[in-house]
């Protein structure tokens, strides 16, 4: 499969990608735990069906020491016993923040309160931005049919 669009080829896309990547860098440097970041990025990408992002975040998480068991259970995290309560709260927020159209009230107060029990305001801000960021990147990749499978950990474009 070949991508419909090369984001680095044109002046407008190239300029926009630089800003998008700077947001990603700021989030990586945030106080939100790295494991939570990768789990959330992976779950949002699974929900949206973004193969390129599932490929990237699975490999990045594994390279950072995430276990195969936890990676394999992200899609079924509710029934899995391998995630902390904080990670579960982040995954719950990620799901509701991604499936906004499925819920009449968007993100529920109970889900927000659960996340707020585990993360401080700066971490919550990073979590919210990460969820929104991943949804945007997923859509960019899906619309342009970015291929998956060849990503190498540590080679973020």
UniProtKB/TrEMBL annotation:
InterPro entries, A to Z: AhpD-like, AhpD_core, CMD-like
Domain Carboxymuconolactone decarboxylase-like: 18-95
Superkingdom classification of source: Bacteria
A Pfam family assignment: CMD
Coiled coil (residue ranges): none
Name of this chain's protein: Carboxymuconolactone decarboxylase family protein
Species for this entry: Streptomyces gobitricini
Lineage start: Bacteria, Bacillati, Actinomycetota, Actinomycetes, Kitasatosporales
């Amino acid at each position: 499969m070949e991508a419909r669009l090369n984001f680095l080829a044109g002046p407008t896309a190239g300029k926009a990608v630089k800003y998008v990547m700077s947001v990603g860098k700021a989030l990586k440097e945030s106080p939100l735990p790295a494991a939570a970041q990768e789990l959330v990025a992976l779950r949002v990408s699974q929900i949206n069906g973004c193969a390129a992002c599932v490929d990237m975040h699975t490999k990045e998480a594994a390279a950072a020491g995430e276990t195969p068991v936890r990676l394999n259970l992200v899609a079924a995290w509710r029934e899995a016993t391998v995630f902390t309560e904080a990670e579960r709260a982040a995954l719950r927020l990620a799901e509701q923040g991604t499936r906004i159209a499925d819920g009449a009230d968007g993100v529920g107060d109970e889900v927000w309160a659960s996340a707020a029990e585990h993360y401080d305001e700066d971490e919550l801000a990073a979590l919210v931005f990460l969820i929104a960021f991943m949804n945007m990147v997923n859509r960019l990749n899906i619309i342009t049919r970015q291929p998956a499978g060849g990503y190498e950990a540590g080679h973020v474009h």
